[in-house]
Amino acid sequence: MFGVIRELYRNDKRFAFGFTVLAFFVIISFASRFAPYDMRAWNTAPRDLRPSLQHPLGTNSIGQDIMWQAMVATRNSLLLGLIAAAISRVIAIVVGLLSGYKGGLFDRVVMVVTDSFIIIPLFPILILIATILRSSLNMVVLGIVIGLFGWAWDARLFRSQILSLKEREFTKTAVYSGLSTFKIVLSEHLPYIVPLVMATTINNVIWVIGMEVTLSMLGLSNLNTPTIGTMIYWALQYQAIFLEMWNWILTPVTICIVLVLALYMLSTSISEYLDPRTRLQMIRKR
Amino acid sequence: MGVRPIPYYIVALVLLILFAFLVPIFPMAGGYSMGAKVGFNARFIMSLLRHAFLPILSMVTIEIGGWFLQMRNVASNIVEEDYVVYAEASGLPKAKIVFMYIMRNAIIPQITGFALNLGFIFGGALITEIVFAYPGMGYLLYSAILAGDYNLIMGINVFSIVGVSTAMLIVDLIYPLLDPRVRYQ
Q1: pTM of the entire predicted model
Q2: N or C: which end of chain B has fewer CB within 10 A?
């Protein structure tokens, strides 16, 4: 595992960039534990200050320190991405593995459900759910809701991999030696699709972060919890562009762009590494 | 290709700050200049285009990469076909091969994608329209959702359904013109 990371880090500039940026954001998220203010409260600092030593990125019009706000927001957005991605991964893996391995009627019924989840117009439904749950919408609930809708496509992807793994000989050996279905699927098939799971997880995190920003910009999530989306929402509400408060509006925008780009580069680099043809080219180039 | 994963409204925000505020070439909000008389004349159309330019640009910047990739994939498959090899062997000029032999065949999936994308005109531009305060369908839908005006939401949905199905019908009728192999009996 670490050997692979070191190899990719040395040979692929995109991986190096993505990994460094992601590590930076993770460190920031941990550092946000030491925030001196309560980030949900307003008026904890003087308003509308330009960047200074005491407030490195200035303060905003509702009296919050932008640097600490951004750090907590990064942590919350990453956390949300991880929660939603973890939930949707578990569902996708279980559904994909079982329906691919079992086949028959079970497979057909499950795939009908999966296909309907793929074509459901997600955005209106999320708006509906967010309006209904708005009073009790915290990070975890939002993560669960988004996670419950993001698994279908990847379940199909995993299933297609299992369909070919099922025909290999080790599966038959496992069946004849009396392993149960769950054991075969988990200990024989899962290791083969772990790399694929990694790549789709990163893509899923990107998607979740984008979804959260969308919902927050519409004012549909819990607006007191600082996330990248709610920071943009409040900056737009207080007309930060007209007031020329670049430190307020550009901080979340920059974080969003850099974070998404870093994750995207990580995922393309990993999936290229996993594709045997491009990996051969990589080895030849060296 | 790097811009593809960035949410399009973030690009919209950046464009808004750059070209409407720092370098005020384009207006910040609205569908046409205030006080302009609505009518079919050059001045009104110019003002309409000026206001629509940034929202369009923000969406095009993001979408163009995907379209490019798709066109490239299809074209690289068609290049291997026998008739392209034959055209090259018979010494046709390169421009003619590219436009008459490759592009005409590669453009068909693009037309299908275009028709499917027409659906997003009504729903997908929601946030772009909010960022630019553009008085379009998405903005109307947003205010309808906020006000809980279910009749208006239903009306907008009917519009978008009719729009998408009409677009699909037109594209279905255009296919035979583009691809002689398609025939409707």
Answers
A1: 0.81
A2: C
